[in-house]
Structures are given as structure tokens and as C-alpha cells.
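Below sits our specimen:

——
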Amino acid sequence: MSPYVVMRKRIAFLFLCVSIFLVVLIVRLGFVQLSQGADLRKKADDSHFRGVPVAPKRGNIEDREGNVLAMSVSTETVYAVPAEVRQSGRAKEMAATLSPLLGKPATDIEARITKRSALEYVQKRVSPEVAAQVRALALPGIGTTEDSQRYYPNGTMAAHIIGYAGIDNQGLEGIELTRESELKGIPGSILQEFGANGIPLPQAEHQYLAPKQGNTVRLTIDKNIQAFAERELQKLMTGQGINMNGQVPKSASILVMEPNTGEMLALASAPTFDPNRYQEADPSTRRNIAIQNGYEPGSTFKIITLAAALEEKKIKLAEHFFDKGAYTVLGKNVRCWKAGGHGDQTFMEVAENSCNPGFIEMGQRLGMDNFYKYLRDFGFGQKTGIEMSGEALGILANKKKATALDLATMSIGQTNNVTPIQLLTAVSAVANGGTLMKPQLVKEIVGPSGRVVTPFEKEEIRRIISEDTSKLEREVLESVVTNGTGRRSFLPGYRVAGKTGTAQKVQNGGYIQGEYVASFVAFAPADKPRLAILCVIDGVPFYGGVVASPVVQTVLLDSLRYLGVKPDSKAPLTPGKPMPGLEFPPIKKAATVPSVLGLPLAEAERILAQAGFKTMTEGQGEVVLDQIPHGDSQVEAESNILLYLGADASKPTLTPWWEDADEDIEAIRSLTGRLPIAVSPLGH
């Protein structure tokens, strides 16, 4: 073969190899460009640009009418880029300069600004003046960036619902936690060009990526109804509640629900805390007792027993029942609250009188299987699903081990443990026509533009009783308020249905004598309910009808007026005749207390007298420095108003203008036997 041919073959082979290499290279470049280009570009930008995060503003939390309950206010954060600080060689000097401005030890600042990290926050939430001084120093690697801080303009209002956000603007409790994803927004950043040596490039390009504000969470809560509830709780916790006689409960809660939708209009608990300073609060005050605490409901639970007995047609309201003072079950006597019993009465009167033996008879007729079926159907022993963390299940007696005696005590609201939200949800089902609703706290999610992103609809869980049964029981419970044990919640011109409850507190397997959980549950108007209200007062030596009923009466009256519910011309203006053996004080109309702060004593007394109030004074001087109840409070007409005079006026305990014994006049008597907890005869 000639040398020419050999050379041509070699050239051809070389050309083929080069061609194959070029094809492979082109394919590889195409693959990298098309499939990995975005990731590689991001890595290049990350090394070429350094970003300072810009925190987004959290979305507002508002009540159902758009009143702001939680908002974010602008603040600033001092940050450091440690690589630049180290390169400057002035870390110790810069730390000493920043120390007096930030109020932190220089050693702590130096350790932070020289860390092996891309970015370090030196101090969050600095004042605008301090931020300006830091910028004026022009320290290498030290800068400020926009930040935000959570602010709760109403202080303690609805604190247990709203919760609070931490220093990094992350939700820690309440709606702030459960709606974190909607509230937090999307962070932005400020990008600056750097060379490979980590030095900012002269006339470098800056990019600002704006943060996106979080969505607004609009609650079902009504700020005004919440305020009515919290006002009454404040009175209770300062010993000013009607009939409290200066006594202060351990805790109390008031829940208000729209029974037809399950929307919570108020959910208030005391003691409470200020979410602006949540770190300073006792952890126990941050507990949402209306959701997380259980208690024996006492006679308020008789609403459930009555609903089941009526639905199963185990009783007729006109049917007679004889109460001899006790009901004997398995050789044990469960006593009526009234010594000697109520004698012959109809089941309508059994409900009005809250007669223990009569309700035990209903439970016995229902039987264990039916009774437990209604317990479950009404939602006891399970979470309601309300949007709050830590909701308790409640505790039901073990059905397999339960006896007829357990059934007797459960029928009158003892033995089982329920939460306030469970009880109010169950009673609302009786009020709304028989359907159990899921309690709602969030009405809608609204975007920064004002457009509704996520609306929430009412959620029906199950039908429990018929419309006819619901209507019948509403009439019975209205009679309880008009003629029976709930007369202290009577409102002239309004149809109110309700039930008192008093439960002894359990401790070490037995009941604590003389310390009760007093409660009252009501809904109105009785024929077409707009509101259902439950008040629970823990740790008082008084019965539910004495201390809880007046609280519900006041909140109910203020709320109905606020909602524009006009009095019913067919509703009674006075309650019926009290039960034999019980003396009730006349129920007076509610009246608004005028404010007389800063007025001379004579002028204050004249204004209060014209409004129908009596006055008491404390201290020396001629000017009113303070008053209890405060101005604009709703109290019974002809109440005493205590006026504090002079700069050094002391504030003694104010004794209520009238005292009264509850219908539970019989001394507490308990059974002993198989039950691990003594059986109390409390009726109300």
C-alpha cells in the first residue's frame, strides 16, 4: 500500500475520532444546558450573589367584622456577614462599638459576627434610632434589614384563641399556630454581587426580591360579644360578680355559639394573659380551659338525658312521677337535692324542678345501650374538631364495667367528664333542631388584595334527635327559666331556655366538700335560637344558679341587643310562680351604669340616683377617682355603686346588695359503695 493511501486513512481516522468527540461534547453540553442549566445557574448566583433575607409581614387576624385582633408592625434587625467581618480584621473593635448600642456583651457579639456561616442575626427588633446609628457606622459586613414584630392591639382580648407568635414571627399557640402556613407569608431578600475573593464588587449590581405578605385569617369571633364575656369574667376574677360575696374562683370560662352554624362568637377564659408579653405570663394562664379542661357537668347534662328520653319516647311530659326524696338503685339511695323530695309531679315539673330521681328514672328507662348511644351521638368522649391545639377528649365511664348505679349517676351529670366546648356543642344540637354541628373558629381566609381565598362553610356532623323532639325540649327548657331553677337568667320580653348545673370537684377518688364547679347553659330566643351560651365557674362555694346564671343573663342581654334581636311581644315580662319551698328575689331589669369619674361627689350621687342606683363611698375627698362597677357596665337596676374618693382611697371588698340561697338548700350527702367516686345529690 502506497504511503499516500496510508496517510489518507490516518487522516480519515483522526477526523472520525475528532467528529465523534465533538458530537459527544455537543450532546453533553446540550444535556447540561437543558436539564441542569437552572440548577447550575442557581449555584453560580449563590456564590456570586449574597442575599440578606427580608422577613415578610404576617397576615392579620381579624374578627368576623374585620376588626384587627393581631397585626405585624415594622421593625429592623441588625445582621452580619461573618466572611466580610473576618476579612476586615476589625471584629473585636466592631463588637466593642456595637455593644452599647445593642445592649449586649461585646464578647457575645464578637462570637456571633465571626461564626463560620453565611449570615448571622446580631439583634432582632431594634428601634429605628438604633438601626440608623448602626448604618451610620458603616462597619464592614454589618448591616440592617427590614423586619416585623407581632402586635396585639387589644391586649388580653381573645388571647386564648389568637395565641401568640415568637421572636422569629413563627406561630406558637392558638390560631397563630394552627394557621401558620396561611399567616407567615413568603420571605424576600436583598442580593449583592461579590467576587471570588468574597469582596463586594465596585458598582456591584443589587437586586431586591420583595417579600409577600401573609394572608389574613378572619375569625367567627365577634369582638363585641367577646368583650361582653371578658368583662363578666373580669368581674368574677376580682370578686365583683353578683352573689360572689368577694370570693374569687380558680378559673372561669364563657363560650358563645351560633347554634345553627356552629360558629363561635366568643370563647373567653380566665385567668388570661397578654400575648404581647407572653413570656412574662404564668404558663397556667395560657391554658385554654374551655377546650383543654374537663369537669363533671352536673345538672346541665340533664338536657341530654331529657333529649334521649323524649326521642326514644320513654316518657311523656304529662306523665306523673312520684319523688319520695331518693331513688334506690342496687341498694344505694341517690338523694334528691330537696329534702323529702318533690312528691307527685309531671315529667314537665321534673325538668323544671331539676329533680334527681325523676332524671334517674329517665336514664333507667333508656337502658345502658341507648344511653351510651346518645352519649356518643352528642359527641361526648371524643374531640369536637374545633381548631385549637390540645383539645381534650373528656372521660366516659367504661360501658363494659358500668352498672345500673353508674347509669343513675350519669343521668344526672355525674361520673362522666366533659369539656365546656363538648357540652355547648351538644346543647346547641338540642337548640337548632337536632343536628350536631362542628364548632368553627375560622370564617374565611383573605388574601393581601382583599379577595377571599378560602371560605368556610358550616359542617353538619350528624342528626341526633328529630325536629319535633327539639321543639318540645326547647319549650321545656324555656319553662325551666320561666318557672323553675333557671329563673335568675330570666329576661323580660325575651324567650330564654336554659339549665343550671353544680358539680362537686373530684380529688383523690372523692368529692371536695364545699367547693363546686358552678355552671349555667342557655339559648335564646327559645323558639328560634340565635345564641347559645355556657358559663363555667371553677372553685367556688356557691351553686350554679346563684353565680353563673346572672353572668349568662348579662352577656345574653347585651348580645341580643347588639345583634338587633328585638323583644318578643308574646314573651312573658315576669317569671312564673317559684317552686314550693324556694324563695327567689324579684328579678330586676338590667340597667347601664353611668360613668361619674372625675366628678364632685354630690354631682356623681345625683347622676346615679337619676339612673336608679344607690351609692356607697370609700376614702376621703370630694372627687370620684374610681367606681365599681365601671361606667357602661350592665347590672341589675337599683344596685349599689361603690365610689372611691381621694388620692389614697383603698378598695375593700364590696358585699353584694342582696344575698340568696340557691335551690340546692339540702346539705351535701354522699353514697359509699362500689363506685370509686362518691355520689353527690347535687341537683343544680
User: Anything to note?
Assistant: The chain is about 30% helix and 25% strand.
